[in-house]
Amino acid sequence: MRKLFLLCFGLFLVSMQVMAQARNISGRVTDDKGNGLANASVIVKGTNIGTSTSADGSFSLSLPSNATALVISYIGLSDREVALTNESNYSVALVPGVKTGLDEVVVVAYGTQQRRKVTGAVSKISGSAVENIPMPSVDQMLQGKIAGLQSVSPSGQPGSFQEIRIRGIGSINATSSPLFVIDGIPVNTGDFSNATNSSNLLAGINPNDIESISVLKDASSASIYGSRAANGVILINTKKGAAGKTKIRVDGEFGKNDIAYFPDLAKPLTKDEFKELTTEGILHVGGTQADVEDILGQLGYNSTANYNWLDLVKRKGQQQQVNLSASGGDAKTQFFVSGGYFKQLSEIIGSSFKRYSFNTSLKHQVSKRLTIGSNLNLSSFNQEGESESSNFRNPIIAGMALLPTLEAYNADGTPNYDPAIFNQIFNPLAIRKYDRLHNQTSKLLGSVNGEFKILDNLKISSRYGIDYSNIEENAYYNPFFGDYSTNDPATTGLFFNSYNRLFNWVWTNLADYSFRTLRDKLDVHVTGGYEAQKSQLLTQNGSGNGFPLTTSIKYPSPVTPLTPVFAGSDYSFVSWLSKADVSFLNKYTISGSLRRDGSSRFGANSRYGTFWSVGAAWNIDQEAFMDGVDVISLLKLRGSYGVNGNAGIGNYNWRATYSFTGTYNSLPASFPNNVGNPDLTWEQNKPLDIGIEIGLLKNRISIEADYYKRKTDQLLLNEPLSPTSGFTSFNNNVGAMENKGYEVTLNATPVKTKDFTWSLSLNGSWNKNKVTRLREGQTEIRSLPYIIRVGEDVQSIFTRLWAGADPQTGDPLWYTNESKNETTSDFSKANRTIIGSASPKGFGGFNTTLSYKFISLDAQLNYQYGNLLYDQWGFLFTGDGAFASLNHNRKQLQRWQKPGDITDVPRYDFFNSTTSNAASSRYFYKGDFIRLRNLTLRFDLPASIAEKLMLSQFSLYVRGTNLWTKTFDKNITMDPEQGINGANDLQFFIPKSFTVGVNIQL
Amino acid sequence: MTTRSYFNKAATLGVLMIGLVITSCKKDFLDLRPYDSIGSDVAISNVSDMKAALSGAYANLGSVNLYGRTIPLFADLLADNVYISTVNSNRYLDFFQVNYTVTNSNAQGVWESAYSTILRSNNVINSPLKGTAEIDQIRGEALSIRALMYFELARHFAKPYTVDPNAPGVPVILEYNPIVKPPRNTLKEVYAQIEKDLTEATGLLTIEKSSGFFTKYAAKALLARVYEYKGDWPKALNTAEDVINNSGYSLLKLNEVLSFWENNKDRNDKMEVLFEVVFDANNNAGNSSLAYFYDQNGYGDALATESLYNTYSNTDVRKDLIVVGSPTRGANAKVVNKFPNAGSADKDEYKVIRMSEVYLIAAEAAYQTGNESLALDYLNAVAKERDPSFAGYSSSGAALLSDILLERRKELAFEGHRYWDLARYNMDVVRVNLAGNYPGNVPLVIAANSFRRILPIPQEELDANPAIREQQNPGY
């Protein structure tokens, strides 16, 4: 220890000495309009010596005697090289440009770093890529933009929860979602609503306020987040001000929404088609023509009503957003303020999202050494929606299942809710009119921070941040009809009001030290710190029934108040963290990180864990032997390995507890509710990453490729107990799995002339998951049709092999063997096997931009392939008559009708009892798709004209989102974009948007 | 400033910061406890805790797997009192069709919930607290609950005691051990434990709270039933008579029958009910309740059989507990109306043991000990209070026994007794198919030697417990 200290001290003295020999220069870095650029990087070419500019863009630097030029770089602008003369003052203006170089600065964990020195797999998205997209939350916008990151929507409800997986699924029972860190604060994400169908806390962040996003995928970049890094980390930095002229910016867009993709086969039958099927079905089961007439009468065929219920639950969706911002400041104080409004009315009745957001960022330099700042994001969103999935209030179920013969309206034009007609699935128009389901989520994300420079190269900083969310929900179910109406005035109707409060604070203290030594050849950067965090969830909700028979009272006083609920939970972390990187001659970088995490979630016997990483990078292009290899402008190899964890294991799972949530005969009751396990701990993840970064032809082409393998063990599983103990299972860290795969990103600018630029980028990811161990003696866990089996993908699908309809009889057939050469009509003899996985083999995106003078066209295509989608509701809508009183989809029209028909849809039987509709490969479809996620045509007012109008920028654009979708399974009955498990559960449709927008900057 | 002074400043600041950090980070910062529960180690530290834990054991008796629905339904459905309508919600068809297997979820439910109630009782019984009448009372109630659960486990999962007392019973677990992997005890050992617990309980129970809690005579009444199931007739008679003569509880009178079954509250009037599981507005099985399974506005799947309905004379007040006609199941459907509160917030209690049963136990025990006139006295005491025009039974010999069993069938219908009466006497179950109650795929006879006369040890127990794996009930 003492030796180490002496060594450090020695190095320090050496570095001091080295600095003393230098000559001093100064200067200022600006953009092309003369505004000073803060935090631009100024590096002496061929060395690691450099500095970053202060708030007004000025810098001063000590030069080594052999310095020849400066390389100046800034996020979003082109690098510039400036030859050094005898001058001691340099003014450098940077122009906008596509950055692909390794000299850009990227946001990494607890700081920023020059890309060249990054040893890990970090993907970056600039804020401009998530601006003015017609989607409520930023996580939706990541899809197709980052290699290795899968982002899917389980629902098209605006503001709904998005599922993100980075480098595969890393857990079975704990979370598989990444950690989000916004402005240095690890935030709570996910769905914390109680009544809303699906709600996303991240939808409280206005994507237009985002400056940059970094996705940390491997050990080297993420392990410093310790026990929460296993599923990757997404760093989001919000916009900050810069010194210079005050910039005012206005963005506005409006447009409409429609359904992105809904195949014809999935649409409901018309009145005549359903009549034809029903008639056929009754005759098949031995009915007579008289029976046919009788049953058709019962199904409403004597009425004149003829509705397409799916059309009735659809409407014209709307899209609108307006964002205003101002930023600027002087050398000492910089600010950014913004306000935003976002509104999305989905194409399904009663489903909408509205958000108001405000953002303020202030930074002030108190003295040469002390800087203080504050960020504040405030937002409030209102989400309206109906239940999804199997709920009989779901407008999608109603749209699919209600018969065209049911009368939708009363004579006076109001929706008909006659319980004799709508007794199981309610009239969605009446639900819309008489019921309410609202979510009002208010969010505050803010921090105060201070930074003190003890020395030019030694600073300490402290940040206290809070992440606060209020989720207020109101569900109202009318007293006239529906799930909660009764004949008893004392109990009819129901309201449910819920209030959830999430309060999360984080205090981060860091010390940052860097120095150069060995004649400036060695560049060392060390960060150490301490972080404490505590998050608390409080819930209050109450419900009541027995309402006055009117729907115009928002909070009716219930005749019967029902049980109120008061609940809560919390978690805490304390962490010591450190990281260091050492660069030699700008060619070789070695980095390491070490974090010790303690958490309330970990059992008493394993409260603290240590997580680490090591990484190395080699900038081959800097080697002497590469001189003269002009075609290669950049070549970097990097690798990393380490250990991190997944702490998403439940707040109190390790504790042996007695719950007090019960009562008996109006007395409080307690009972043992958790066995507990004092050894319970984080799931452990060991990622290995090897990457190569190549730049060709002065970086006109750049390629980044990674191979990774991450082994996860200590997976949380339920270990069964003998039920005679009074418990049936407990949580234990026993399973293991691995993910391995490749990622490739290619950026190219094939054409770049004065007026015309064509650039494109392409990314692809291929992941292979394998479960390697379950608990002792266990080889599989079934939750059919899914199976978790040792040696197989964690989302494998295990089901019977469907063989279609018997050409002679129309009976259902299944294969009895995997080689699919023998069939049976006996369901119990059908072979069950793994037919594939819900996880894609590959996915990615393709982006291209063409710009000619003041017109540009931007297109993004996303793709995915190799996964299976599950039509969970096929048993009903393509159930061959099993639910004969409900409408079917058009796929059912392909049914067998007469001997000799070759089809995979069996005979239609009225109240089919052949089990043809039991889960089998019949209801699985190839999930391959290509989707035109974005198509934007943009006109920029030429700068000369804009200037005359006193504008620095004026643009108009038209944008289409999800305009075009190509699927590769001709039988598919759903949008191919489903949740991670690929199961269609009658969610709201993903929208297709068409918007027109304007962007003005003063 | 010199380098050194900067360092000093840094050091000072650093120390200051660490100081702040340490003060903010007390040791309990990571020691966060759930908001609605407390550590098992301290959960039962005083009398109030003990009471709450006892309530937890009572509350579990109301589980859908136990008296909430499965247990009372099982014995009427498997026997000949109740059938499942063709219009049904797909529940309990396995019991109706007698085709359950080792993975049967209802059998698993009974097993799991009974043992979880036993755990709750064990923790109360084993609490170190001792010494006051109140604590004795709590412990006595917990002992009674434990005995009741072992009794249920034994009759569902083991052969009748009267058939083979040395047959495998169920594992007897008397203290909490999460990793226990026990083999089966013999039936004799299980019954010995039940008798021991109930005997000890009767010594500890001194307080009468309401019919919703075990009392001294409720425990004795249960003990009488245990002797009846053992075929230990002298003790059965003795104990039942002790309850009849000394408990102070009255037998349900003719004019009280209908209001008695309409009532949805526990009682304090010592009328009829010795112990019942309370389902109030806060704690009930809701749509999973037995009542909802009979209620034609609920699931309404289960209906009374025609053969049972025909046993009641037109003047029998109990005939009014069955209503003819259902909106969805036809004008001739016999709708069970013994539990009419499915639609109210406060639901029907489940009567675990009541005086009428004690009288019938006494009648049966008197008959079996050769005292037929005493048997007729007890039998007619019940029968004549149900039917004003009934002159009373006067049979003897085998006919008297069959009259006693008939009266038990009529009096205790829908309360979960019928099947066990047939089991105790090792008789075939014979379902009489009147009015098409039984479709073709439902067996009409379940022979006394059918392996399905008892339930399988659940698969999950076999999987988790190697010691029991080779001890499955034969046939499964």
UniProtKB/TrEMBL annotation, chain A:
One of its GO terms (cellular component) is cell outer membrane. It comes from the Bacteria. Pfam families: CarbopepD_reg_2, Plug. Keywords: Cell outer membrane, Membrane, Signal, Transmembrane, Transmembrane beta strand, Transport. It is a multi-pass membrane protein. The keyword Transport applies. Residues 115-233 form the TonB-dependent receptor plug domain. It is found in: Cell outer membrane. The keyword Membrane applies. Residues 1-20 form the signal peptide. InterPro entries: Beta-barrel_TonB_sf (IPR036942), CarboxyPept-like_regulatory (IPR008969), Plug_dom (IPR012910), Plug_dom_sf (IPR037066), TonB-dep_OMP_SusC/RagA (IPR023996), TonB-dep_OMP_SusC/RagA_CS (IPR023997), TonB-dep_rcpt-like (IPR039426). Its main location: membrane. Belongs to the TonB-dependent receptor family. This is TonB-linked outer membrane protein, SusC/RagA family. It comes from Flavisolibacter ginsengisoli DSM 18119.
UniProtKB/TrEMBL annotation, chain B:
The keyword Methyltransferase does not apply. Coiled coil: none annotated. It is found in: Cell outer membrane. Residues 341-476 form the RagB/SusD domain. The keyword Signal applies. GO terms for cellular component: cell outer membrane. Residues 28-227 form the SusD-like N-terminal domain. Its main location: membrane. InterPro entries: SusD-like_N, SusD_RagB_dom, TPR-like_helical_dom_sf. Keywords: Cell outer membrane, Membrane, Signal. Belongs to the SusD family. This is SusD family protein. The lineage of its organism: Bacteria, Pseudomonadati, Bacteroidota, Chitinophagia, Chitinophagales.
